[in-house]
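Weekly sync, protein design subgroup
Attendees: M.S., D.O., the rotation student, P.L. (late)

Item 1: inverse folding check
M.S. brought a backbone from last month's batch and wanted to see whether the design step gives back something sensible before we order anything. D.O. pointed out we never logged the input encoding, so this time it goes straight into the notes. Structure tokens as presented (248 positions):
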């Protein structure tokens, strides 16, 4: 694989949903890179989740968001819920920023930017008898719930949205890019339904499960983010670019 110069604008293809790509485009543009918007998944709020959400919201002390999309879905489904009266926890800084934009102060942000670390952090902050409500995606990853369950911490979880593979670019030729960012196994599957990265393109994964999806598809991650955000992805890209060409 060819080595990329250390100081140059790169063309980076993003494979999240349209909303997720727009979120990451800000950080990429600030870092001087060109974004290729190539959504390979789409999300949809689950309208029939509203009744369950309202039922478990009131007795919950902590409201935890596993993604920014979960916060958006809550606002879409039940914007009248008393979020200011609850303790609010989230996995990353992006969701925290969106909470602040709503006039809300997050009480807890995951120390390592992962659902697993958020679970550990919650266990340190929860008082005896407090109930945690986890809001996330249908069939989403269960690290947070698993950490709480293993410690005997009471919690409920409600799926507020679903993620499906799909893209408006189906049938189009893949444009030339220097790197492709994958933020979920779903995005990997959606991308590979129509395209395959060439040997000169750096493939960057957001974490172990996404890297596993790449390996299962016969690919490999040239870099894996240490934190589940755009900063982690850019750090992984920088490490991949610095790796010896023979290892790429």
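Designed sequence read out in the meeting:
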């Amino acid at each position: 694989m060819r080595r990329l110069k250390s100081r140059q604008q790169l063309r980076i293809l993003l494979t999240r949903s349209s909303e997720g790509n727009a979120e990451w485009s800000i950080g990429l543009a600030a870092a001087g890179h060109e974004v290729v918007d190539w959504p390979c998944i789409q999300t949809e709020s689950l309208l029939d989740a509203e009744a369950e959400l309202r039922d478990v919201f009131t007795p919950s002390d902590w409201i935890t968001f596993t993604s920014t999309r979960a916060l958006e879905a809550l606002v879409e489904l039940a914007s009248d819920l008393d979020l200011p009266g609850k303790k609010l926890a989230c996995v990353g800084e992006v969701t925290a920023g969106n909470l602040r934009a709503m006039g809300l102060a997050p009480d807890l942000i995951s120390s390592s930017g992962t659902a697993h670390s958020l679970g550990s952090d919650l266990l340190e902050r929860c008082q005896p008898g407090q109930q945690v409500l986890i809001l996330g995606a249908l069939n989403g990853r269960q690290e947070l719930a698993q950490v709480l369950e293993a410690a005997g911490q009471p919690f409920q979880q409600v799926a507020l949205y679903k993620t499906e593979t799909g893209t408006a670019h189906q049938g189009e030729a893949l444009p030339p890019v220097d790197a492709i960012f994958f933020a979920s196994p779903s995005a990997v599957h959606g991308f590979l339904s129509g395209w395959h990265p060439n040997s000169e393109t750096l493939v960057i994964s957001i974490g172990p499960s996404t890297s596993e999806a790449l390996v299962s598809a016969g690919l490999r991650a040239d870099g894996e983010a240490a934190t589940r955000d755009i900063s982690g992805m850019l750090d992984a890209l920088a490490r991949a670019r610095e790796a010896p060409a023979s290892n790429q």
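Discussion: The chain has a mean pLDDT of 91. The CA atoms of residues 170 and 194 lie 6 Å apart.
Action: P.L. to compare against the previous round before Friday.
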